[in-house]
C-alpha cells in the first residue's frame, strides 16, 4: 500500500474560504467565499465585508457544511471588525457598547442556519470571550475586536488540523470495521452523502477527508457519492472534489444507494453531521436516516465524521434538534427559474433528518472515535471531557471488542497452510484454493475453503457482536467454544446427522469443520424453491430424539447431567439474546423490531395489546430459563440444516444450552409452518405449490410422531433405568412398574408436546414482527401477497402460543393450519 502525504495533497486542494489579514498599520482583512451554488459550472468567489454579507451567504448556501458555516460566520464578523476601526472605540468608555454590538451580531449570525450547531457553539464561545475581556481593567473596544479576530483565525487553523487527524482516525476505524463485518480491509467501496470535503470546511474535509485518507492509505477501490436531492450537493460538489483529487468515484441517485448496498456494492458509509445530540443521535442532510436504516439492514458499517464542536450536549437525544425547512422552490423549480412540477402541489422540504444512535457504528472526531455502548448509544459528554483533558492534541481511542480479528481470505489461507492437520484436509497448492464468505445468518461469519476436486473445509468465526446489527449489539466470542463442544457432543450422539469438528482456535474464535460440499444446500433455500425432501422428517426426528434423550437425565447419571448443565449454563449471553428477541421484544415497541408496515400495523398493535399473548410468552420464558431437560441445539431453524436428496445434517448450534426439549422441536416445526404459509407467495399460479404444501403438512405431522416413537423406544431400551425414573420405582420388579412407567412417559411427552406448540408459536411470531425474519417470507416480491402470508402465519403463531394446551394431537395442529390458510 502507498501512503500519500495529506499535507502535500492539500497544497493543490480546493478552498471554500479565502481569508487574509494584512501586516502593519490598520491590518485590514479580506474574506472571500467560493459560491458553491454555481459549482461545477463556474468557479466564483464572493467578497464578504461584514456580518450581513456573511448571513446572506450562509442562508443562501453560498457556503455550506457545518464547520465551514461556523468559520465563515465568525470570519465575516472578524473582517467587519478589522476594517471598521470606528466600530470599536479605543477608550475604555466604549467597551460596553462594543461588547453589546459584537454579541448582537453573533446572535444574528446564528439565525442564518439554525440546525448547524457549530456556528451556535462558536458564537457562544465568542460571546463568553468578549464578556470576559470586557471585564478586564482598562479594556477597550479595540481589545474586544482583536480578541474576536484572533479567535476566528484560530478556529480556521484548528479546523484544518482537526480534519487531518479525523481523516487518519476514520481511515483506520473503517478498515477495522470492514475486517469485522465485511471480511476485507482493502479494495473498499465507501459511500458518502452530501458534501463534507474541502468545500464544507476550512480544507480537506470531515467525512470526505476520511475518504481522502482511505485513498491515501491505498485501501480505497472507489468512493460512491449520492446526488443529495434536492440541492444536489453531492452531484455538484462532492463529485467535483473527487474528480479534482483524481479519486476513483461513482455518482448514484439517493434512491439507488440502498439497492447498491443490497447488491453488496458498498463496504462502508461515512458522512458528516450538522448536529450530534448527547446520546449520539445525528442530524444531517436529508437522506441520512434512510441510508442508516439501509446500512443496518445490509450489515454495512455506518460512520459519522464530525468535529466535537458539532456535538450539542444540551440535547439529550435527537428529538430536540431543530430541523430547518427549505423553500419549496428548491423542489419545484430548476436553477434557471423554470417550474418543473404542477401548480398547486404541496411541498415539504426539510433540509435535515435524524439518524438514531443505534444505527451508527462509530462517530469519528478529531480526538479519536466514539464507540457505542451495549445499548447502542454514545456517551458524548464523557468522551469530550476525556478527550479535551487527556488527549488534547488528538489520540487514538481503542475500538471496543477488538480482541478478535475477522479473517481475510489470504489470512485464512495462511492459517490453514501453517497447520499440518488442517492442511491435509484441503488438497492442492494454497495459491489455487478458493475462499468464499457465505454466511447468510444474523450472527457469524462462515467461510468455505476449497482445494482441488472441490474438497476442503468450513471455517466459522464468531466475532464479538451480532453480525446483522454490528458493534452496538455485543456478544461474547466464547459462544464459539460452546458451539464447538455442542457439535462434538451431538456428533458423538448422532454422527450420521452432525458434521465432524477438526479444530477450535479460541484465540481467533474459529471452528474448523467438515465441509458439506455440493449438492448439499441449506434446507431453507430448497423449501423456498418448492423442493420435496421425503427423508427429512425421518432424519430430523432421529436427530431430535437421539440428542434430546441421550443428553437428558433420562439417560445420564445425575452427577454427569449436573456437570453438563453447569458447563452449558455459561453460554448465558446467547440465552439472554434468545430471551430478548423471542420472549420480550416482539411484544413491545423495541427499537430493532421490524414488520411489513403499513400492511401489518393493525396486527402488530393488537399483539402488543394482547394480555393473553403476554402471559403465555412469559410462561414460556420462565420455562426456557428454568427447565434444563436436555442439551438443546438452541436455534434449530431451516437455515441450520443442510440437505441433499439422501442426507440431512444439522449445523450451527452456537445457542446450545440445557433447556426444555420442546424448544428445539418447536423451533424446527415453526420453520416448516412458516414455509407452509409462505408458499402461496412463491406460486406463479394458484395451486402450483399444492403438492409441496401437502408434503410440508406431512412433515410437521411426521416429525412429531416419529420423534415421539423414537424417544419412547430409546427410553425403553435403556436397560439399567435412569436417574429420573429409577428401576426401584419403574422397573419390572416394581409393583405396577411397567404400567406406571408408561403413564409417566405419556405424561412426560404430553408436556413436551404442549411446550413444542408454545415455542413454535413464539418462534413464528418473532419471525414476523421481531428483528430477524425468514427469507421464506422476505423473498416474496409482491408486498401485499407477502403481508397476507405473514398475517396468516402471525395469527397461527398466536393460536399455538396462547392455545397450546387445547390441541389434542399433531393432526389437529396440521388441520387448523390448513384451515386458516384456506380462510376458515
Oligomer: single chain
Low-pLDDT regions? 1-11, 392-403
- Record the strand order, biggest sheet: 6-5-4-7-10-13-14
- The termini sit apart by 66 Å
Q: Strand percentage, roughly? A: 5-15%
Verbal overview:
With 824 residues, the chain is an alpha+beta fold. 46% of the residues lie in helices and 13% in strands. It has 28 helices and 26 strands. The strands form seven sheets. A seven-stranded mixed sheet has the order 6-5-4-7-10-13-14, sandwiched between helices. Helix 22 (661-678) packs antiparallel against helix 27 (783-803).
Topology:
Elements: H1 6-11, E1 17-21, E2 29-34, E3 45-48, H2 51-59, H3 66-83, H4 95-110, H5 117-134, H6 141-182, E4 188-192, H7 207-216, E5 220-226, H8 233-244, E6 249-252, H9 256-262, E7 268-271, E8 275-277, E9 282-285, H10 288-297, E10 302-305, E11 311-312, H11 329-332, E12 352-355, E13 362-365, E14 368-370, H12 380-390, H13 409-417, H14 420-423, E15 434-437, E16 445-450, E17 456-461, E18 465-466, E19 470-474, H15 479-493, E20 501-505, E21 510-514, E22 521-522, H16 523-528, H17 536-550, H18 558-568, H19 572-583, H20 601-609, H21 611-626, E23 630-632, E24 641-643, E25 648-650, E26 657-659, H22 661-678, H23 690-717, H24 727-730, H25 737-769, H26 775-778, H27 783-803, H28 810-821
Parallel strand pairs: 4-5, 4-7, 5-6, 7-10, 8-11, 10-13
Antiparallel strand pairs: 1-2, 2-3, 8-9, 9-12, 13-14, 15-16, 16-17, 17-21, 18-19, 20-21, 22-24, 23-26, 24-25
Helix pairs in contact: 2-3, 2-4, 3-5, 3-6, 4-5, 4-6, 5-6, 6-7, 9-10, 17-23, 22-23, 22-25, 22-27, 23-28, 25-27, 27-28
Amino acid at each position: 500500500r502507498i501512503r500519500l502525504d495529506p499535507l502535500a495533497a492539500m497544497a493543490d486542494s480546493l478552498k471554500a474560504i479565502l481569508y487574509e489579514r494584512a501586516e502593519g498599520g490598520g491590518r485590514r482583512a479580506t474574506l472571500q467565499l467560493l459560491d458553491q451554488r454555481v459549482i461545477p459550472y463556474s468557479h466564483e468567489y464572493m467578497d464578504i465585508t461584514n456580518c450581513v454579507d456573511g448571513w446572506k451567504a450562509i442562508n443562501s448556501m453560498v457556503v455550506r457544511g457545518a464547520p465551514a458555516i461556523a468559520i465563515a460566520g465568525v470570519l465575516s464578523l472578524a473582517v467587519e471588525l478589522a476594517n471598521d476601526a470606528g466600530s470599536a472605540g479605543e477608550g475604555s468608555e466604549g467597551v460596553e457598547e462594543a461588547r453589546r454590538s459584537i454579541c448582537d451580531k453573533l446572535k444574528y449570525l446564528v439565525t442564518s442556519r439554525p440546525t448547524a450547531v457549530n456556528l451556535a457553539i462558536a458564537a457562544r464561545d465568542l460571546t463568553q470571550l468578549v464578556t470576559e475581556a470586557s471585564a478586564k481593567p482598562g479594556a477597550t473596544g479595540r481589545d474586544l475586536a482583536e480578541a474576536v479576530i484572533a479567535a476566528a483565525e484560530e478556529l480556521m487553523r484548528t479546523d484544518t488540523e482537526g480534519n487531518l487527524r479525523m481523516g487518519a482516525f476514520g481511515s483506520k476505524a473503517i478498515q477495522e470495521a470492514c475486517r469485522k463485518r465485511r471480511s476485507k480491509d482493502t479494495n473498499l467501496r465507501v459511500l458518502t452523502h452530501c458534501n463534507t470535503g474541502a468545500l464544507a470546511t476550512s480544507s480537506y474535509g470531515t467525512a470526505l477527508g476520511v475518504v481522502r485518507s482511505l485513498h491515501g492509505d491505498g485501501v480505497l477501490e472507489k468512493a460512491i457519492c449520492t446526488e443529495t436531492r434536492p440541492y444536489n450537493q453531492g452531484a455538484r460538489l462532492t463529485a467535483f472534489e473527487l474528480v479534482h483529487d483524481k479519486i476513483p468515484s461513482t455518482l448514484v441517485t439517493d434512491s439507488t444507494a440502498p439497492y447498491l448496498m443490497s447488491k453488496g456494492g458498498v463496504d462502508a458509509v461515512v458522512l458528516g453531521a450538522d448536529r450530534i445530540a448527547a446520546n449520539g443521535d445525528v442530524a444531517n442532510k436529508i437522506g441520512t436516516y434512510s441510508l442508516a436504516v439501509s446500512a443496518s439492514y445490509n450489515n454495512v458499517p455506518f460512520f459519522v465524521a464530525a468535529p466535537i464542536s458539532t456535538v450539542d450536549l444540551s440535547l439529550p437525544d435527537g428529538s430536540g434538534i431543530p430541523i430547518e425547512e427549505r423553500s419549496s422552490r428548491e423542489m419545484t423549480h430548476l436553477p434557471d427559474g423554470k417550474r418543473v412540477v404542477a401548480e398547486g402541489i404541496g411541498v415539504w422540504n426539510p433540509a435535515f433528518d435524524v439518524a438514531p444512535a443505534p444505527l451508527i457504528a462509530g462517530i469519528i472526531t478529531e480526538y479519536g472515535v466514539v464507540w457505542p455502548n451495549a445499548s447502542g448509544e454514545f456517551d458524548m459528554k464523557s468522551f469530550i471531557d476525556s478527550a479535551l483533558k487527556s488527549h488534547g492534541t488528538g489520540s487514538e481511542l481503542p475500538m471496543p471488542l477488538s480482541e478478535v480479528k475477522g479473517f481475510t481470505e489470504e489470512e485464512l489461507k495462511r492459517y490453514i497452510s501453517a497447520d499440518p492437520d488442517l492442511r491435509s484436509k484441503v488438497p492442492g497448492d494454497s495459491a489455487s484454493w478458493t475462499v468464499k464468505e457465505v454466511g447468510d445468518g444474523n450472527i457469524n461469519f462462515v467461510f468455505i475453503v476449497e482445494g482441488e476436486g472441490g474438497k476442503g473445509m468450513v471455517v466459522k468465526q464468531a466475532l464479538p457482536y451480532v453480525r446483522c446489527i454490528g458493534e452496538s449489539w455485543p456478544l461474547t466470542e466464547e459462544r464459539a467454544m460452546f458451539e464447538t463442544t455442542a457439535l462434538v457432543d451431538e456428533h458423538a450422539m448422532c454422527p450420521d446427522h452432525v458434521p465432524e469438528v477438526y479444530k477450535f482456535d479460541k484465540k481467533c474464535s474459529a471452528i474448523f469443520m467438515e465441509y458439506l460440499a455440493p449438492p448439499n444446500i441449506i434446507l431453507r433455500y430448497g423449501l423456498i424453491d418448492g423442493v420435496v425432501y421425503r427423508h427429512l422428517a425421518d432424519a430430523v426426528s432421529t436427530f431430535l430424539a437421539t440428542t434430546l434423550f441421550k443428553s437428558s437425565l433420562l439417560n445420564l447419571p445425575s452427577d454427569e447431567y449436573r456437570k453438563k448443565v453447569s458447563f452449558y449454563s455459561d453460554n448465558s449471553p446467547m440465552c439472554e439474546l434468545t430471551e430478548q428477541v423471542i420472549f420480550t421484544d416482539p411484544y413491545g415497541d423495541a427499537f430493532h423490531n421490524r414488520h411489513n408496515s403499513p400492511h401489518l400495523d393493525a396486527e402488530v398493535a393488537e399483539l402488543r395489546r394482547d394480555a393473553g399473548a403476554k402471559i403465555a410468552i412469559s410462561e414460556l420464558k420462565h420455562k426456557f430459563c428454568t427447565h434444563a431437560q436436555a442439551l438443546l441445539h438452541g436455534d434449530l431453524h431451516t437455515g441450520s440444516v443442510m440437505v441433499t436428496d439422501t442426507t440431512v445434517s444439522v449445523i450451527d448450534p452456537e445457542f446450545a444450552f440445557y433447556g426444555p426439549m420442546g424448544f428445539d422441536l418447536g423451533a424446527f416445526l415453526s420453520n416448516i409452518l412458516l414455509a407452509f404459509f409462505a408458499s402461496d407467495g412463491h406460486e406463479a399460479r394458484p395451486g402450483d405449490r399444492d403438492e409441496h404444501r401437502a408434503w410440508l403438512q406431512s412433515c410437521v405431522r411426521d416429525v412429531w410422531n416419529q420423534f415421539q416413537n423414537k424417544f419412547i423406544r430409546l427410553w425403553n431400551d435403556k436397560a439399567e433405568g435412569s436417574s429420573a425414573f429409577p428401576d426401584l420405582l419403574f422397573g419390572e420388579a416394581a409393583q405396577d412398574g411397567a404400567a406406571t412407567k408408561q403413564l409417566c412417559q405419556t405424561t412426560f411427552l404430553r408436556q413436551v408436546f404442549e411446550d413444542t406448540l408454545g415455542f413454535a408459536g413464539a418462534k413464528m411470531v418473532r419471525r414476523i414482527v421481531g428483528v430477524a425474519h425468514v427469507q421464506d417470507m422476505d423473498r416474496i416480491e409482491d408486498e401485499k401477497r407477502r403481508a397476507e402470508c405473514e398475517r396468516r402465519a402471525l395469527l397461527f403463531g398466536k393460536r399455538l402460543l396462547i392455545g397450546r394446551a387445547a390441541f389434542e394431537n399433531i393432526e389437529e395442529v396440521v388441520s387448523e393450519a390448513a384451515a386458516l390458510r384456506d380462510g376458515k
